[in-house]
């Protein structure tokens, strides 16, 4: 985040943070606590530590995406994260993808890009 804050061509007033799997689990606490982050996209989020306290208190816009065939982060877990998350939020399960999103990269990327376009 510090590097982005001084990088040429970066609008520091419009920073979004995206993470996939473990990366989402790492990005989420950072994004919630860092005032420079405006919104977050979490794809197949894997959390080592229970995220519920932070999900309930983080009021930044967030997109939580999961795949219907994900056996590492089941759709039911993603839906629970979505239910527990503070507003504003959007949670969606995409029909078909497993944890690695093979063959579904474009729809996932379009969802994430559209989310950031709308909120940033």
Rg result: 14 Å
Shape: globular
What is the class in the CATH system?
Alpha Beta
Q: Could you list the spans in which at least 5 consecutive residues all have pLDDT below 50?
A: none
Helical content stands at 40-55%
Please give the domain count.
1
SSE blueprint:
Blueprint: H1 2-6, E1 15-20, H2 22-33, E2 37-43, H3 52-57, E3 62-67, H4 75-84, E4 89-94, H5 105-119
Parallel strand pairs: 1-2, 2-3, 3-4
Question: Your description of this structure?
Answer:
The protein is of the alpha/beta class. It has five helices and four strands. It has helices at 2-6, 22-33, 52-57, 75-84, 105-119; strands at residues 15-20, 37-43, 62-67, 89-94. A four-stranded parallel sheet has the order 1-2-3-4, sandwiched between helices. Strand 1, helix 2 and strand 2 (37-43) form a beta-alpha-beta unit. The longest helix is centred in the last third of the chain and has 15 residues, at 105-119. The model has no long low-confidence stretch (mean pLDDT 97).
């Amino acid at each position: 985040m510090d590097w982005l804050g001084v990088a040429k061509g970066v609008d520091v007033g419009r920073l979004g943070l995206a993470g996939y799997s473990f990366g989402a689990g790492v990005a989420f606490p950072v994004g919630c606590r860092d005032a420079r982050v405006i919104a977050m996209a979490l794809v197949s989020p894997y959390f080592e530590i229970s995220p519920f306290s932070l999900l309930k208190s983080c009021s930044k816009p967030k997109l939580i995406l999961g795949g219907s065939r994900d056996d590492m982060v089941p759709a039911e877990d993603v839906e629970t994260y979505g239910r527990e998350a503070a507003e504003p939020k959007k949670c969606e399960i995409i029909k078909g993808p497993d944890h690695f999103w093979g063959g579904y990269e474009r729809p996932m990327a379009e969802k994430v890009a559209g989310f950031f376009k709308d909120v940033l």
